[in-house]
Amino acid sequence: MTYLSGQAGYPLVLVRLIFPVCLVATLAGCSTAGMSGGTSLPDMDSPAAQIFVSRCSACHAVPHPGRHSYQGWLYLVPVMEQRMAERGMAPLGVEDREVILTYLQANAR
Ligand code: HEC
């Protein structure tokens, strides 16, 4: 953000206005735009969906659960866990994996 303040004449008011909006939008749905086509996730307000979003949007837009069958997710989630390990990220752990897979199962294709 520092590069913005370095630009002479940049309307700071605009930055102040836009920044919080972006932050909220990122949390709520901006990050879902890529893979889910801008549609919101099923049960967006549920704790499971929140865990899904927080764990699955670190490297790419959060994918829509309907993108794959449950079988597909059973294959893909361990691959993603491998990607997390490769980047030194904390593993999902038994609990989060369970929550995420249950959420995916309920909303899979
Ligand atoms: C550490 C970074 C990282 C995290 C965290 C991550 N992914 Fe990924 N994801 C990737 C990468 C890298 C790819 C590109 C394909 C590959 O390398 O396997 C990808 C690709 C995908 C794809 C596209 C592949 C396809 O066939 O549709 C889906 C869907 C996906 N990830 C789902 C998830 C889910 C679900 C989670 C949470 C459990 C997750 N990702 C968390 C790195 C990550």
Describe this structure in words.
This protein is mostly helical and 109 residues long. The protein has one domain (9-107). 62% of the residues lie in helices and 0% in strands. It has helices spanning 2-6, 12-28, 33-36, 47-56, 70-86, 93-107. Helix 4 (47-56) packs across helix 6 (93-107) and helix 5 packs antiparallel against helix 6. The model is unreliable at 21-34 (pLDDT under 50). Heme C binds next to helix 4 and helix 5.
List keywords for this structure.
109 residues, mainly alpha, 6 helices, globular, binds heme C
- Count of individual helical segments: 6
Q: What integer value in Å does the Rg equal?
A: 17 Å
Average of pLDDT: 81
| Strand portion | under 5%
Helix coverage percent: 55-70%
Based on DSSP secondary structure assignment, what is the total number of beta strands? 0
* Shape by Cα distribution: globular
Q: How many structural domains does the protein architecture include?
A: 1
State the end-to-end distance.
Answer: 40 Å
Low-confidence stretches: 21-34
Biggest beta sheet attributes: none
Going by helix content, strand content and strand pairing, the class is: mainly alpha
Hetero groups bound? heme C
Order of helices and strands: HHHHHH
